[in-house]
Write a structure and sequence with these properties.
Rubrerythrin, domain 2; about 15% helix; Pnp Oxidase, Chain A; 2 domains; binds fe (iii) ion; single chain; about 200 residues; mainly beta; 3-stranded antiparallel β-sheet; 3 helices
């Protein structure tokens, strides 16, 4: 492959995907048909807990993150698992059609799941839009912007003397001076060479 960076030019946004009992940050969302109730697809990593929840529930919501979103929303939904914390206790939400949506967003889309396609690493869930609202008509955060600015957007605060390692794929944070020898990301499974080191206090 000559330069895979061209894929960064695919326009993708930043969303909080929620369903009953959980949610996570996603970027691969697209509208795949038009009309009053368009179809919307979202791709979710298979070993993400939200993927499991989506298989058990028939509705999901996408809250669209604005460019000036509070970074806590990204760290809460993108860098933690509901297996460890209750994400809904950390951010303000409201319930629409039985699914929680994020108040600090530009708006939401609630979909009824109608299909799903499995591939090697991800599941593509397809839903029909049943409810939607626009809270604020401002610029959305796109994935390319997030990738370029994530070091400023998300300041990892470590305890004094502690070093953090961040998974560049899923955002999982490991605290410690060195990563253990055969370490793999517990959230997305990638090797330790895909972790970036952050010195303490950065
Ligand atoms: Fe990871």
């Amino acid at each position: 492959m000559k330069n895979k960076k061209i894929t960064r030019k695919i326009s993708q946004g930043m969303y909080v995907l929620t369903t009953k009992n959980g949610g996570c940050i996603v970027d691969a969302v697209s509208q795949i048909s038009a009309g009053d109730h368009p179809l919307i697809s979202v791709s979710v990593m298979k070993n993400n807990y939200t993927n499991q929840l989506l298989k058990e529930n028939d509705k999901f919501a996408l809250s669209v993150l604005g460019k000036d979103v509070n970074a806590e929303i990204i760290t809460t939904f993108g860098m933690n698992s509901m297996r460890d914390i209750n994400k809904f206790e950390k951010v303000e939400t409201e319930e629409v059609e039985g699914v929680k949506v994020i108040n600090d967003s530009l708006g939401y889309m609630v979909c009824e799941k109608i299909d799903s396609i499995e591939n090697e690493t991800h599941t593509l869930f397809i839903g029909k839009l049943i409810e939607a609202d626009l809270f604020e008509d401002k610029e959305a955060m796109n994935y390319g912007y997030y990738q370029e600015n994530k070091n400023d957007l998300i300041k990892v605060t470590t305890e004094k003397g502690k070093t953090a390692w961040i998974c560049t794929i899923c955002g999982y944070i490991y605290y410690g001076e060195e990563l253990p020898d055969d370490f793999k990301c517990p959230k997305c499974g990638v090797d330790k060479n895909l972790f970036e080191k952050k010195e303490s206090g950065v």
